Amino acid sequence: MVAAAPVTVTDIAGNIDRQLTFMDIEIEQKRYPHLKPKHGWLEKAMSYNPYAVGLLTITSGRITLADEHGHTFRSLGPTMITAAQLGIYRSTTHGFGNGIRLEDRLTVNLNLTTTSDTYQLLNDDLTVIPVLLTWLASFDVSVTDPLHLKRLPADFDWQQVTAAEIAKWSVSTPYAAQMTTLGARNRH
User: Fold this and answer.
1) CB contact at 8 A, 66 and 57
2) Which residue in 84, 61, 63 sits closest to 72, CA to CA?
3) CA 116 → CA 28, 81, 96, 112, 188, distances in Å?
4) In angstroms, what CA-CA distances link 36 with 25, 27, 31, 33, 187?
5) DSSP state of 70
6) Has residue 114 got a pLDDT over 90?
């Protein structure tokens, strides 16, 4: 079964509390995903992403949300987070090459519930998962973990995860359906 969900393509500040929104995550002065510089027009064109991407910055005492232009539009203390959910969406994107090529796309979903809103954040870098789990635990935030990601060993290699593994982990969870993603590849 394939599911569809709206994703913010512009105006992050106006849409973040209503639909899935791509956000880079900066925590402990490290950014996820760590993007490699693109050189030349062909490489830039081939790495095009149609979605607006904002920035979630997490420090020891503050969480800030910035829009696609880098303007901070929300700032809150970590104690204002009342709950979180962490999961991984599976989708298929168009690959490069002759004919129709499809590639798996795995996207982290972090839902942060605050005293006033719920933010459904997306990120392309699975290596952020253990960092987020550690951060959420440090503030005693209740985490819903339908894929049982907390149970994975500390040395688990997130860069080697496959869509088939996620499909097994997500049976009977909100992440079981494969999502549709048109024209967007992972940002690496």
Assistant:
1) yes
2) 63
3) 26, 9, 42, 11, 33
4) 16, 18, 12, 9, 9
5) S
6) yes
Q: Can you read off the two tokens belonging to residue 115?
A: 């005293």
Q: Which residues of 10-32 are buried (b: 16+ CB within 10 A; e: fewer)?
A: eebbebbeeebbbbbbbbeeeeb
Q: Which tokens hold the place of 118?
A: 């719920």
State the number of CA atoms in the 13 A half-sphere of 166 facing the CB. 25
pLDDT digits (tens, 9 = 90+) for 15-68: 898 888 999 999 988 999 876 655 565 555 555 555 678 999 999 889 999 999
Nearest to 94 by CA among 54, 53, 48: 48
What does the alpha-carbon distance between residue 10 and residue 105 come to, in Å, rounded to a whole number?
21
Question: What is the per-residue pLDDT for 57?
Answer: 96
